[in-house]
Structure formats: C-alpha cells, structure tokens
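Researcher: Here's the sequence for the chain we discussed earlier.
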Amino acid sequence: MEYFSLSQPPVVVFSHLRWEFVTQRPQHLMKRFSKHAQVLFVEESIPSDRKSPAHIFSPSKNITVMQPIVSSDKYTIQVGKLIRNFMKQNKWDTPRLWFYSAMFVDMLYQVPHTQVIYDCMDELSAFLGAPESLVMNERLLLSKADTVFTGGKSLYESKRRLHDHVHCFPSSVDKHHFEKALVSKKTSSPKDIERIPGKKVGFYGVIDERIDLNLLQELAVLNPDISFIMIGPVVKIAVNSLPNQKNIFYLGGKSYDQLPQYLKEFDIAMMPFALNNSTKFISPTKTLEFMAAKKPIISTPITDVAKIYPQEVTIAENSLEFSKAIRAYLAESVAAKKTREHRQTIVIDQTSWDATAKEMESIMTKTELAKAATKSERVEQPVFQYSV
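Model: Thanks. This is the structure I predict for it:
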C-alpha cells in the first residue's frame, strides 16, 4: 500500500549506527521512505586497505550505503565531496538531510539541502565513550534543524524545550514480522536455543552498558531452574565482565529475519536494563516486538516503559521482584493470559512503522511548503524608497 506520493526529494542520512548492524529505527524508516525516494545512508569512516575513498553498496532498491574510507581529521571535507559527487553522478535533486547523530553536524555546510531533520532516537551524549563535543554539536544541529523527531516521550520532553518544532514518534513495530513467533508450524526453532533446557526467559538486543549485569547474575542464582537467554552483540563492555552462570546462555547476534524464530522459544521476555544515564531516555523497540509475539514481559522501571505500558509490562525494581514476576507468569491462568494478550493486541493494532513513516512524511512536506511560502513572501515583498 502506498502511503505517500510517488515523488519525494532524496534523503541523505547521517548515522552513528551501521546499516548492517542490529536492525533498528533507521533501517525501519529508511526502507519505507525508499519506496518513494532515493536514500543515501552515510556511516562513520571505516578502516580499510581499499584505495577507494568509500565502500558503497546497495542493500535494497533505492537505498545506497556509503562507508567512507577517509582520514578522521579531514572527514567533513572529504565526505562532503563524496556526497556531492554521488548526487551529481546520479542526477539527484537537492536532498533532505536526516541526522541521527550531531557528530555529523558539519555536513550542513558541505551538502546543499532543502530541509534538515534531526531524528533523535537516543540521548547519545549519555552513552559510554561519547565524545565531549557531542553536546555542543547537538546545540548547533538543533539551531539549524527545521524539524525534530524524538524516539520516545522522555526525549520529547527534553528536546521540546530546545526547539519549536519537536514531534514525538516512539518506537513502532512490524506486527506481521513478529507474529511469526506465534505460528509454531511455520516458524522453526534454531538448534542453539531449542536444545537449552527448562523454561526460558529471554532478551535480544545490543548487550552494552545499558544492561544490568548484576541483576542478570542475581536472577540466575535465585532461579537455577530457569534458563536466561541473552541474544545480541556485546559492544563497549568486556566479554569477561558478563555473568558466567550455568543457566545463562549467550547466543550472539542474530539477524532481524531470525528474531521471530528465537522469540518463539521464549516463555517470558525480559528487559533487564540498568537504571543509569544511558537508559534515562530510551524507548526500547523490543517492547512492542515482544507484545506482537504475545509474550509476557518483565522490565526494570525504564521511564518510557513504566509510564506508557503499566498494564502490558510487569515492572520489577530488583531481582526479588523480577523473580516473583517470573514465577507469576509461569503460573499464569488461562483467563489472565487472555486478558494480557488482549491488552497487547490493542497496543499493537494502534501502531506500525508504516504509519510512523507516513506521518513523518506529512510533517516534512508541510515544513517544506511553509519554507517555500516564506521565501516567496520575502522575494515578492515590495521595496519602498524613502526620500528625506
């Protein structure tokens, strides 16, 4: 189904997340925008022995990924030239610039554009290893942005004080993709999770400083009969810092297409996030994905989970509450399960990445029309001459 007009301006995206990393908000949105617009997805520079200035590939129709192979001190100038050459070679009209990270803000002065969009999906300045310059760069980006989208309500409350045109678009979901976890005959179970014994309480996502490793350790000790499944790449933290209990299983990263197969095996889905600066504003995409698969969900009190889904997600403050919730869900009655799944269905039926992309496109189009009208008024305004 087409959800906006067939002819949209091209989009140049600047992302701190790589296209081939974990499928997240950037991939979901750009795949949908690419149905009616050309998308150039620009990543941070990569180390390489290649003599070419960039590794360029096309993961799908109308999407091109550019991985610059340039020196860090000359990134802005060199990448700006790469993008302008790409636009010229492909006969692009003037694009929209879409930022996921303010570290790319200097590209505003390198690439001609019709509009600047800042899609703030995370408070990156609070993440482990964030550059000190990120805060100042974001202030500059906010001063230049025409439109700001946020990935959750907490971020919205934070950013709307800094910009006049902030719109809240929490994480959405591809309902049909994760409903595959409900179709037992059509969705096979991978051997690495199928052979794990006992009841399974699982998580998937990036395993980094946002995960409460102490909580995970305590849960494993308190519940020796439960298997705790952790799926995802380990990033920014040492692998040897992970809890090493016999009933904790680390299965590594899995592709987006594989996730329903693993989710099918979860008896309970968990979100064991730490409560720290890096999780203060997060709005986990997996919340809705777990709901689409009708899984019981237990989470630590992340603001955008506890406030938005108080009935759909059980909130646990510590390992004892978490363990109690696990036991309650394992003993869930048929009636309670039916009520929970009904609540989850209501939430899922009200959101989709398609709807999010459509509404974002509407906002961007209105912004461009308003800018064009303002420019026209300035041009057409009569010049009065005064004589003394």
